[in-house]
Specification:
There is one protein chain. By secondary structure, this protein is of the alpha/beta class. The chain folds into two domains: 290 residues, Aminopeptidase, CATH 3.40.630; 84 residues, Urease, subunit C, domain 1 (Roll), CATH 2.30.40.10. The protein is built from nine helices and 17 strands. It has an eight-stranded mixed β-sheet with strand order 1-2-4-3-5-9-7-8, sandwiched between helices.
Length: 381
């Protein structure tokens, strides 16, 4: 499919009821209730706090694909894109009809509803579900494992979000979308099923390079059998980690949402139309590995207590009265050569103080600073 056609589908079918980063069961339940009869919606389990975990199954094709999102409750961009995808696939006039004839999709939109409501990575028992694949101590982990056992997928899509700190390699380009084909052994052997997932990722990367050149990365594939992706890959199922990251000034992750949607369509279309053997895996190896070279804001050449330094600021994502706030926090006061800011402010050697006119301190939260006496707002718009 042409990218312009996919972008047109996104514009037409984007789910308007979902916006921003704070997405919970309360947001998706009205959408699940209005899905057409072609979608099978079920409660497949309950969370620690007895909240329902929903599934949506669509399609009747022989190629089975399992997709789960918000295993980490505060990683919601892929969830928004899932509902955009559902709207597109379930539209009677859609150009994507062949996907449902060739594939069967089993979607878990929010695996960790308690973490989603609290806007935390962990579940209500303070367990990272992505480190519970072997011990299965949590009800949410057991739900996913049961689905994997029963559905017997040919592909797994492990859907996540990443922080703004990541660069696509050792560059000043943000890793707006990242991928990984997880390892299945300590040696990180490039096995047959890893080659299959590498081939699919390479196809998505080729498409994304047309939209966000040099802004796609891959993660280090160090093996951890406690991670879900590593476990499923080790059980011979090609598994793809999706990570939605930062696009310029897009803290609500709405542009990234479109890019994830594009990745869904491109990959599903490729799987539907091809017998993916892994023969074309090598392009994956050319995608740069993520580095951590970004801060949200850097104030350059600032005078702090008589010393010329840079000031590194990172937003703390804080839920206040069920509204997500991006609170600026000073992490570094030093020269930050080789580190980049998503926003950079030039102090030109002038003194930088906090709002009260006092010296800045590491770990302090500052909505604004004073540069040479002038107020400069640090919060996002």
């Amino acid at each position: 499919m042409k990218l312009e056609d996919i972008k047109s589908l996104f514009s037409k079918h984007k789910e308007g009821q979902l916006y921003g980063r704070y997405i919970t069961n309360q947001d998706i339940e009205p959408l699940l209730n209005k899905l057409p009869k072609e979608a099978s919606v079920n409660v497949i389990g309950r969370s620690v706090q007895d909240n329902p975990i929903y599934s949506v199954q669509i399609g009747s094709g022989p190629k089975r694909i399992l997709l789960w999102s918000q295993m980490h409750g505060n990683e919601s961009t892929t969830t928004k894109a899932l509902f955009d995808l559902l709207n597109s696939l379930l539209n009677g006039q859609s150009a994507l009809k062949h996907l449902l004839e060739t594939c069967t999709l089993y979607i878990i939109p929010i695996l960790n509803p308690d973490g989603a409501a609290a806007y935390t990575r962990i579940n209500a028992n303070e367990v990272d579900l992505n480190r519970d694949a072997q011990n299965l101590t949590q009800p949410e982990s057991r739900v996913l494992r049961a689905v994997f056992n029963d559905f017997k997928p040919h592909f797994c899509y492990n859907l996540h979000g990443q922080r703004t700190i990541f660069s696509a390699g050792a560059t000043n380009k943000s890793a707006t979308v990242s991928f990984l084909t997880p390892a299945e052994d300590e040696a990180c052997t490039i096995t047959a099923q890893r080659k299959v997932s590498m081939e699919v990722i390479a196809v998505m990367n080729a498409a994304l390079q047309q939209e966000i050149p040099n802004q796609v990365g891959v993660y280090d594939d160090a093996f951890n059998i406690n991670c879900v992706g590593d476990t499923f890959q080790s059980e011979q199922v090609p598994t793809i980690l999706f990570e939605s990251g930062h696009y310029h000034e897009d803290y609500d992750r709405e542009k990234t949402r479109e890019l994830i949607y594009l990745s869904y369509i491109v990959s599903l279309n490729y799987i539907a139309k091809n017998d993916v053997t892994g023969a074309n895996y090598k392009a994956y190896l050319e995608i740069p590995e993520n580095d951590k070279l970004f801060l949200d804001i850097i104030i350059r050449n600032a005078k702090v207590e008589g010393e010329l330094v840079d000031i590194g600021i990172q937003y703390q994502e804080t839920l206040i009265d069920k509204k997500l706030e991006f609170v600026p926090k000073i992490l570094k006061i030093e020269k930050l050569d080789g580190i980049y800011g998503h926003k950079e402010i030039e102090a030109n050697g002038n003194e930088v103080l906090n709002e009260s006119g006092e010296a800045l301190e590491i770990d302090s939260e500052n909505v604004l600073v004073r540069i040479n006496g002038e107020k400069v707002l640090l919060k996002t718009k």
